[in-house]
Structure formats: C-alpha cells, structure tokens
Amino acid sequence: MIIKNLKDRLLERRYRVILVMAFILFIGVAAIISRKSEMELRSLPFSSDDFKEVALTFDDGPIPNATPRILEVLKKEGVKATFFVVGRMAEKYPFLLKEICEEGHEVGIHTYSHPDLTRLSKEELLEELNKTRILIRKITGKDTYLFRPPGGRYDNKVIVTTTLSGYKMILWTDYPEDYGCLSSKLIYQRAVSKAEDEGIILLHNGIDATLEALTKIISELKKGKYGFVTISELMEEVGERESVYFEKFEREQKVKPPLEMAVSE
C-alpha cells in the first residue's frame, strides 16, 4: 500500500514537471512567433497612406486669452503639440508655460524679445536663446534645444552660431498664413491642403481665426489618417535619414514668412 502511494506521488510529480515544461515551451514558441510576426510586419512595404505623422506647432505667447483655449481644444482632441514661446511672454505668464508642459506638450524657444536674428551679433543672438532657455528650465524644470527664428529669418551666421552652441533650428513645411488672416475658413483650407507626411504645421498663438479653425484642422487631418506628434518625436522618426532631416527642418520655405509679432509689454 505504501509502495503504491509512493508510486502515485512520483507519477503525479512527473506529470507536473511535464506540464510545467510544456507550458514553458509554449511561451517560448509563442514569443518567437510574435517576434517573427512583428519583424515581418515592419518589413512590409507600407504606402504613405497607411500611416502618416504631422507635428502641430504654435508660435508666440503664451497669451492669457488664447493659450488656455488652444490647450482646451488639444486636450479634447487628444493631440500633443509643440509651443515655441517668447521668453518675455513666458516670464510674464509663467503659469501658462507650466500649464503647457503639464498638459504633456513640448516647449521650444522663439527667442526672448522676438527680434530678427539676422540683424543681431553672435553674442546678442545667443543671449536671446540662452535667456529664454534658462527661463523655460527655471519655470518648467525641462530643458530644450529646439528654437524657431522669428519670422523664419536666418542666415549662415544664425545656422553656424546656433549649431555650434547645441541648438536645433526648426522651421516648417506647412504655413497657412494665419497671422493677420481674419478668415478661419481660409486658414483651415490652407492648412489641410498643404499637409504632408512628416510635415510641420506652423500656427500662431493669439489669433481668434486660428483658434476657430483649429478643431476643423485636427478633425480633417485625423480623417486623412494623420497622427499628431511633437517635434522631438518627429525628429526621432527621420533623424537617421540626413537628407530628409535637412529638408524637413532646415530648408528655405517657399511660402512667405509670418509677419513680425509685436510682443506686448
């Protein structure tokens, strides 16, 4: 009787070992199949229509009567954007800059006083960027090396000086000329008609017509299978393709540059 019980226990233990080994084998095979499927999926020749990305950016501000409304729309639509802020405005309204970051958006530099960088000395140029960068870091705790020159104005001096100092100039591929435009319909039409994969849309903080068009712009791009990313996320996607990287982020724009913003005191 004792021998029989002992045999039964040994048999039961053997079955358990077999079941455990079978389970481990199953998990291993499943992982291999999953990995293989993932690699095959990545290697498929997807067309540009299958997955497209676009970065939504806002220049100027933050502005009390405009920035919160933009953030409200972005939150409702589940979209993350990049805000290129003017240092003097961020210094005046630090709570708005904090709110931008707390909502998960990216912040870039749009200089401290919004000057034409091509008219500044190297020292003045770097002071405009460094002062704003330090201010952003002090208010939000986050550092940034991204900047957009006011009016899209730059020259060799601007490129060399900023690059050697570790900054990265970000321009755009889609500017619907919203600054000074009173028609939200026109802004909407221009924005969606010029949209492209891995593109950068330039809009302005503080323009009522832009705010009115924003929801429609986002909705239409979503219908066109666009996903919204920050500038840093977009740069990660194209960073290894140098020619595309240069074209998307530092090329001369064919559209006319935005007008100079009169930064309020």
Fold and architecture overview:
This protein has 265 residues and is α/β, with parallel strands linked by helices. The protein has 2 domains: 1-44; 52-250, Glycoside hydrolase/deacetylase (TIM Barrel, Alpha-Beta Barrel), CATH 3.20.20.370. Helices cover 52% and strands 11% of the residues. It contains 10 helices and 7 strands. The strands form 2 sheets. Strands 1, 2, 3, 6 and 7 form a 5-stranded parallel beta sheet that branches. Strand 1 (52-59), helix 2 and strand 2 form a beta-alpha-beta unit.
CATH superfamily of the largest domain: Glycoside hydrolase/deacetylase
* Mean pLDDT value: 81
> Topology as H/E string?
HEHEHHEHEHEHEHEHH
Give the C-alpha Rg: 26 Å
Query: How many domains comprise the coordinates?
Result: 2
Largest sheet: 5 strands, parallel
Count the helices. How many? 10
List the defining traits of the structure above:
265 residues; alpha/beta; 2 domains; two-stranded parallel sheet; 7 strands; 11% strand
List the helices and strands and how they pair.
Layout: H1 2-43, E1 52-59, H2 67-77, E2 82-85, H3 87-92, H4 94-102, E3 106-109, H5 122-140, E4 146-147, H6 156-164, E5 168-169, H7 184-193, E6 199-204, H8 208-223, E7 226-229, H9 231-238, H10 242-250
Parallel strand pairs: 1-2, 1-6, 1-7, 2-3, 4-5
Short description:
The protein has helices at residues 2-43, 67-77, 87-92, 94-102, 122-140, 156-164, 184-193, 208-223, 231-238, 242-250; strands spanning 52-59, 82-85, 106-109, 146-147, 168-169, 199-204, 226-229. It is of the alpha/beta class and 265 residues long. The N and C termini lie far apart (97 Å).
